[in-house]
Amino acid sequence: MSTDSYLVIGGCGLLGRHIVDQLLQRGEASVAVFDISLSPLDPRVKVFAGDITDAASLGDAIQNCRPSCIIHTASSLPGKPRELQEKINIRGTDTVIKQAIAFGVQKLVYTSSASVVFNGEDQVNVNETAPYPVHHMDDYNDTKASAERLVLDANGRNSLNTVSLRPAGLFGPGDRVTLPSMMNVMLTGRSHIQIGDNKNLFDWTYIGNAAQAHLLAADRLSPSHPKHSQVAGQAFFITNGDPRCWWDFPRALWKEAGYHSEKSTLVIPRGIAYILASVIEFFSRLLGKEPSLTRMRVTYICSTRCCDITKARTALDYEPLFSLDEGIKSSVEWWKSNQIEKAQNRQTN
Question: pLDDT digit string (tens) for 275-334?
């Protein structure tokens, strides 16, 4: 147990909630959450509702709970309009930094993304020396990279110590994005369709491991910690350290769920899938609908993207608590229970 007090921004989201749980599990006495969308939390947690772009409401929360450490996990979702991405990811993060400095917060841990250095090409064992692309492939990673720059540039300003973590492929219990999407492919009978040759490696990160990394980083941001100088002002890739061929991951989820397709695998080559995505995007724009397949999606599915986490292992003493297979098992267990709960709610209504 540390002597810090914590404010987890986005603490009702997937990662934020797991961070809060781990803080409580290790006996932290002062844990608070700031989130725009609130959901039930442990009664030991102070909860503040507000928008991170609203300096007044964020300042009130900081003044009320007096955190020595802010863990900032709030973010927009990929695919949202550029204006919203800039508002939340850039201006929101800038507001967090300014309010942290104004109220004398000592530590700021920021959740970035492994994709802030992705340039659309294969990246094998990419490490933290990789530069930001001149042009990002999408607005999400462009704005996340801008936010990360703000956080790292703020290190040392008015005694604020900052660090940025770059998890890759987050998944786990409570996931409302990756797991539902992949399990929906199974439920709709499309699990036999494969885009690309499945030779490209991809890094996934179980949510419990990502949460652990945030606590390790927060602890080492303390000026008295022996590894403070290795952490403050730095960015770190966080993964399970177990890259898999891209399609092997969803297939492991489907197998754990007890599903087996009787259909032969239909392989759509990357080039053909890219052309098909272009056509789908064109007609989706005409019809004002969300495209079911995008060129960006094809690029992500078919590119090798695995990270070297040596820096995190050395400076943060990070080692995944949960293996990828353990994460898959607990994730499917959660998904099944969630499906049952949804079915019961439908029957009740």
Answer: 999 999 999 999 988 898 999 999 999 999 999 999 999 999 999 999 999 999 999 999
pLDDT at residue 185 in the model: 93
Phi, psi of 191 (to 5 degrees): -70, -10
Q: Which residue range forms the structural domain that includes residue 50?
A: 6-173+204-242+307-321
Q: Give the pLDDT score at 290.
A: 86
DSSP annotation of 156: T
Long-range contacts, stretch 331-340, CB < 8 angstroms, 24+ apart? 331/171, 331/172, 331/173, 331/175, 331/179, 331/206, 331/253, 332/253, 332/256, 332/257, 333/173, 334/172, 334/173, 334/174, 334/179, 335/179, 335/180, 335/183, 335/257, 336/257
Q: What is the 8-class DSSP label of residue 128?
A: T
Instruction: Please report, for the domain that includes residue 221, its CATH number.
Output: 3.40.50.720
Residue 195 tokens read as 């885009």
Residue of 98, 107, 144, 329 with catalytic role: 144
Answer yes or no: are the C-beta atoms of 183 and 257 closer than 8 Å: yes
Which ranges of 107-258 does DSSP label H, i.e. alpha helix?
A: 139-153, 178-187, 207-220, 228-231, 248-256
Residue 285 lies in a domain: no
pTM of the complete model: 0.94
For residue 109, being part of any structural domain is answered with yes
Dihedral in degrees, nearest 10, Cα atoms 225, 100, 127, 274: 160
Query: Which helix (H) or strand (E) segment is 236 a member of?
Result: strand 234-238
Q: Is 289 a catalytic residue?
A: no
Count CB atoms within 10 A of the CB of residue 101. 15
The series of mean pLDDT values per 10 residues for the chain, 349 residues long, is 87 96 95 91 93 96 96 91 95 98 97 95 96 92 97 96 98 94 93 96 98 98 96 98 97 94 93 96 91 92 97 98 97 90 65
Question: How far is Cα of residue 10 from the mean position of the Cα atoms in its chain?
Answer: 11
Q: Please give the tally of structural domains in the chain.
A: 1
